[in-house]
Specification:
alpha/beta, 2-enoyl-CoA Hydratase, Chain A, domain 1, Lyase 2-enoyl-coa Hydratase, Chain  A, domain 2, 2 domains, six-stranded mixed beta sheet, four-stranded mixed beta sheet, 10 strands, globular, Probable enoyl-CoA hydratase, mitochondrial
């Protein structure tokens, strides 16, 4: 147990060091300014510190092909390094967030090819991003689309959104977290029902199950997600990243080990300028001015 506690302590210190280094990176011209084939990007909010990534394959209902996922991974690499970006939003169209993986692209795959190419392994970039990611889901979020939304940290849904894992009807199972993340969020019974039937659920049902944080009118979805990103961005980016890591650790450990990790990360914040500034500002009854250090 002592060794495990030491591992978590070292991990917390490492995360703090990484976050500090990222906060000191000078902004550069990055691929978000490039012309992508399958996504669109922009900076939004009053301070232009919320990155919005829009999936852009309208004819295919934003089906997730390898090219789209590579572009998404590339732009996340750059947004993660840009100290001016505090939060990231991934969205689609009002008709579809993403209606699943690209079946035409997958259909010729064989078992040996999947094994030797480690198929879908590089689709997890969203889940590994240190900055907070908000999924703004309108329309269909099915199969890989639902899995992509669950890789994000917070899900906002338009009132007409539909979620589902219909892979069973294609003779396969979810392969990018559908049987794992869904079960952790909604429980075994609901996850089994969705995965074994392929049935879709409404945005209202998803909110009741805890899959979605908030349901808003479809035409206000992105603006509400941007407001959320701005709220997150008003805090210390450094501390936000540490807090995200601590929440995510709850899914990877027992309660007792998670509590140890949380406590040590909490202790680590006392080595930061932003913790000192935040508490000093509170005592002095003034707004805090965070420096991300």
């Amino acid at each position: 147990m002592a060794n495990i506690a030491k591992i978590f302590t070292n991990r917390a210190q490492y995360m703090l060091q990484v976050a500090v280094k990222q906060s000191q990176i000078v902004p550069r011209f990055y691929s978000a300014a490039a012309n992508f084939e399958f996504i669109k990007t922009e900076l939004a909010g009053a301070n232009k510190n919320v990155a919005v990534i829009t999936l852009n394959r309208p004819k295919a209902l934003n089906a997730l092909c390898n090219g789209l996922m590579k572009e998404l991974s590339s732009v996340l690499d750059d947004y993660e390094k840009d100290k001016n970006v505090a939060a990231i939003i991934i969205t689609g169209s009002e008709k579809a967030f993403a209606a699943g993986a690209d079946i035409k692209e997958m259909q010729p795959n064989t078992y040996p090819h999947c094994i030797l190419s480690n198929f879908l392994n590089d689709w997890t970039r969203v889940a590994k991003c240190q900055k907070p990611i908000i999924a703004a889901v309108n329309g269909y979020a099915l199969g890989g689309g639902c899995e992509l939304a669950m890789m994000c940290d917070i899900i906002y849904a338009g009132d007409k959104a539909k979620f589902g894992q219909p892979e069973i009807a294609l003779g396969t199972i979810p392969g990018a977290g559908g049987t794992q993340r869904l079960t952790r969020v909604v429980g075994k019974s609901k996850a089994m029902e969705m995965c074994l039937t392929g049935n879709m659920i409404s945005a209202e049902e998803a909110e009741k199950m805890g899959l979605v944080s908030k349901v808003v009118p479809a035409d206000k979805l992105v603006s509400e997600a941007i407001k959320l990103g701005e709220k997150i961005g008003s805090h210390s980016n450094l501390i936000v990243q540490l807090c995200k890591e601590s929440v995510n650790t709850a899914y990877e450990t027992t309660l007792q080990e998670g509590l140890k990790f949380e406590r040590r990360t909490f202790h680590a914040t006392f080595s930061t300028d932003d913790r000192k500034e935040g508490m000093t500002a509170f005592v002095e009854k003034r707004p805090a001015k965070f420096s991300n250090n």
